[in-house]
Design goal:
Elements (H helix, E strand, L loop, with lengths): L10 H8 L21 H10 L19 H10 L23 H10 L1
């Protein structure tokens, strides 16, 4: 049986070569698993290798966390991903707490 050479390629390359149009939603500041290696730059390199055109669209706001851009900016600042110096205020429209254990967190979520 002939070997499929696409399967030897990184996943991003496989997606680009296998579809007429590929759409990637990516936030370079986030990943789910530490071994993830996909990035905006990596997608652009893979697209160039495949001679695929790119149209990049930047989402300017998020609808998570009740649409609070302040929360996203604050979290990025806390994690050192942003140079902003945002302070958490009690009257902000989000709830931030530190729990001593996962079971305390779970109990709090159940109460909500």
């Amino acid at each position: 049986m002939p070997r499929d050479h696409k399967s030897d390629l990184p996943t991003v390359d496989q997606v680009i070569l296998s579809a007429k149009t590929s759409v990637f939603f990516i936030d370079d500041k986030q990943n789910v698993r530490h071994q993830e290696q996909c990035s905006s730059a990596g997608i652009k390199v893979a697209a160039a290798r495949a001679k695929a055109s790119i149209e990049e669209v930047e989402l300017l706001s998020q609808f998570r966390c009740m649409g609070s851009d302040n929360f996203v900016t604050w979290i990025e600042s806390v994690l050192g991903l942003d140079d902003s110096d945002i302070m958490y205020r009690e009257n902000d429209n989000f709830d931030f707490r530190i729990f001593d254990s996962p079971s305390e967190l779970y109990k709090s979520l159940e109460e909500k």
